[in-house]
Specification:
By secondary structure, the chain is mostly helical. The chain has a single domain (about 5-244), classed as Methane Monooxygenase Hydroxylase, Chain G, domain 1, CATH 1.20.58. The protein is built from seven helices and no strands. Helix 1 (about 10-45) packs antiparallel against helix 4 (about 130-155) and helix 3 (about 85-115) packs antiparallel against helix 6. It is elongated, with a radius of gyration of 20 Å. The termini are close together. It is found in: Cytoplasm. Plays a role in the regulation of phosphate uptake. Keywords: Cytoplasm, Phosphate transport, Transport.
C-alpha cells in the first residue's frame, strides 16, 4: 500500500482532503512527541516551567483533534469514501483520540516535576521509581515515533517492536511499584512524593497502551484487519505472519 493510492481520485479536492488528513495526524503526533520529550527533561531537572509548557501545549493538541474530526466529517459527507479511503478516515479518528489522551497523560506524568521543584531537601533522582519512570517515558517516546512513521509510510515492519516495548513497560512498572512499596515501608517521610511518582508511572504505562492502540489502527488502515481484541502475544504472532 502506498500513499499515492490516496491521490488518484478524479476530484482534486478529495485528494487534497485525504493528504490534509495524513498531515494533520502527523502534525498532532509531532506535538505529542514534543510533550513526551519535554516530560523527560522536566522530570530530570524538576523543571516546573517546562512542566507548565507541556500543559500549555495540550490545548494545541486538542485543537488538532477537533480539526481532524471536522475534516473527517467533511470527507464522509461530501465524498462518501469506501475501502481504503474509509479505513483512513476511521483510523485517523481513532489515532487522534489516542494522541489526545497521550497528551493528557504527558501532563499527568510531568506533575512530578512541578511538585519536586519546590522541594529543596529531597533530590528527585533519590526517589524510588525515578529511573524506571524515565526509562518508561523514553520507551514511550521511541515507540510513538516508530508507530507514527509506520502510519506515514503505510509500513507495518516495526510494529512488532512497539508491542514488545509495551510488554517491557509493563514489566518495568511492576518492578518499580515493588521498589516504591519497599521504600515506603522504611522511609515514611517520602510518602507524599512517592504517591506522585506512582501516579506518573501509571501515566507512563497508559501512554504505552494508547500507542499500542495507534499501532492497531495502523494495522487496520493498511491490512483491513481489526486486531483490537488481540492480546500482545496474538498481535505479535499476527504481525509476524502477514505480508508487510
Amino acid at each position: 500500500m502506498e500513499r499515492t493510492e490516496f491521490k488518484t481520485h478524479i476530484s482534486a479536492q478529495y485528494n487534497r482532503n485525504l493528504e490534509d488528513l495524513f498531515n494533520h495526524v502527523l502534525a498532532m503526533g509531532g506535538l505529542v512527541e514534543g510533550q513526551l520529550n519535554n516530560a523527560i527533561e522536566a522530570i530530570k531537572g524538576s523543571n516546573s516551567t517546562l512542566a507548565s509548557e507541556i500543559k500549555h501545549s495540550d490545548k494545541f493538541v486538542n485543537k488538532h483533534e477537533v480539526e481532524i474530526d471536522s475534516l473527517c466529517a467533511r470527507v464522509l459527507a461530501r465524498q462518501q469514501p469506501t475501502a481504503s479511503d474509509l479505513r483512513l478516515i476511521v483510523s485517523a479518528i481513532r489515532i487522534a483520540v489516542d494522541l489526545e489522551r497521550i497528551g493528557d497523560e504527558s501532563v499527568n506524568a510531568s506533575r512530578l516535576a512541578a511538585k519536586m521543584a519546590d522541594v529543596e531537601e529531597i533530590a528527585i533522582e533519590t526517589l524510588p521509581g525515578y529511573k524506571a519512570l524515565l526509562e518508561m517515558i523514553t520507551i514511550d517516546l521511541n515507540i510513538l515515533k516508530m508507530v507514527l512513521t509506520c502510519f506515514s509510510q503505510l509500513d507495518l515492519d516495526r510494529l512488532e517492536e512497539v508491542i514488545a516495548d509495551d510488554v517491557r513497560i509493563t514489566e518495568i512498572k511492576q518492578d518499580s511499584l515493588q521498589e516504591i512499596q519497599d521504600s515506603l515501608n522504611s522511609h515514611h517521610g517520602l510518602a507524599e512524593y512517592t504517591m506522585q511518582m506512582i501516579s506518573s508511572i501509571r501515566a507512563a504505562e497508559r501512554i504505552s497502551a494508547h500507542i499500542v492502540n495507534i499501532a492497531e489502527s495502523v494495522v487496520y488502515l493498511i491490512n483491513g484487519k481489526d486486531v483490537r481484541s488481540m492480546n500482545s502475544d496474538k498481535l505479535t504472532e499476527f504481525l509476524s505472519r502477514i505480508d508487510k
